[in-house]
Amino acid sequence: HKGWDEKKDTINRADHIICISENTRKDLIELFDVDIDKTSVVHLAYESSETIENKGLDDQRPFLLYVGWREWYKNFKPFLMSISRSKSIMNDFDIIAFGGGVFTLEELKLMRKLGFRDGQVRQISGSDKLLAKYYSQAKAFVFPSLYEGFGLPPLEAMSYNCPVISSNSSCMPEVIGDAAEYFD
User: Fold this and answer.
1) What dihedral angle (degrees, nearest 10) is formed by the CA atoms of 20, 21, 27, 33?
2) Which pairing describes strands 140-143 and 63-67: parallel, antiparallel, or unpaired?
3) Stretch 2-17: mean pLDDT, rounded?
4) Contacts of 99 (CB under 8 A, 6+ apart)
5) With the C-alpha atoms ordered 62, 100, 71, 135, is the resulting torsion angle positive or negative?
6) Distance between CA 18 and CA 8 in Å, rounded?
7) Residues near 100 by Cβ (< 8 Å), separated by ≥ 6?
8) pLDDT for residue 108
9) 165 with 183: CB under 8 angstroms?
């Protein structure tokens, strides 16, 4: 692991380590052999600061919202694959990928291969105010991540009364509790 030795040295020099979840603390103890008494858990929080105008978005169809980076452990491609297996979701919903940069050629090819219509999966970038509007108007926020140290986007979604559908991996059950629907 690149930087592993530097991390280990920093951890060894620390008097105490604050972890953002029990899951992160467990990883720290297992990976770096840290004494549990040298750690504490302090969960992150989210408070919405954006006010939402009642005006609708340009998106006329119901949509599922995905937020953030789309590579590797964020599990975006398998998310698209699972959506494509549901005829009703494919017929009734669009997918909005907020942030994460424009779609790669590989992502676009995958969308075509999976049978998504042109424009059914859209990438949007913008301000926190725009993101808040998407959270407030999405039918659900989907968080398919394979691993998170904490996972702030589900809390953001919930602050805008957006239903959350999340993977049941890593810290997600700890962070979201019974406020989401989970999948494996």
Assistant:
1) 70
2) parallel
3) 89
4) 67, 68, 69, 124, 125, 131
5) negative
6) 15
7) 68, 69, 70, 76, 123
8) 98
9) yes
CA distances from 61 to 6, 10, 80, 94, 142 (A): 49, 50, 18, 7, 17
Burial class of 54 by CB neighbour count within 10 A (0 to 12, 13 to 18, 19+): exposed
Locate tokens 């978005």: which residue?
Answer: 57
pLDDT digits (tens, 9 = 90+) for 73-91: 999 999 999 999 999 999 9
Q: Answer whether 62's CB lies under 8 Å from 92's CB.
A: yes
Secondary structure letter of residue 119 according to DSSP: T
Q: What integer best gives the mean pLDDT of the chain?
A: 92
**pTM for this prediction:** 0.86
d(CA 142, CA 32): 32
Grouping H, G, I as helix, E, B as strand and the rest as coil, residue 65 is strand
**102, 123 Cβ separation under 8 angstroms:** yes
Q: How far apart are CA 7 and CA 16, in angstroms?
A: 14
